[in-house]
Design goal:
It is built from five helices and no strands. The longest helix has 25 residues. The model has no long low-confidence stretch (mean pLDDT 86). The chain is 62% helix and 0% strand. The radius of gyration is 23 Å and the shape is flat.
Length: 100
Amino acid sequence: IAMPLLFFVVLLVSGVSLDTARDGNWIPQPETHPHAGWETFQLYNGFRNIAWHVLPSQIVHVVCLFFVVAFGSVLDIAAIQTEQPTPLDSDGEMRMIGIS
């Protein structure tokens, strides 16, 4: 968050306008169609063109993915613990991973 904020502060302090920065390709031009996300939703005709019958077959994959990520996180914490001179709060680290 600090770098974009610093970028715009430098623009402000140096007197460079946003239009000048856009012309120099320092920041992107505004979208010509800002409602493009809604058009993507309309491609599926709301929720009617989604293949809902495929969803139940993916439940097993999602559960397996959850366990793989959880196990990988435990291994990451164990690897960090081996490099730390002081004990690591594994429970706190797992909570932090869960939040993120």
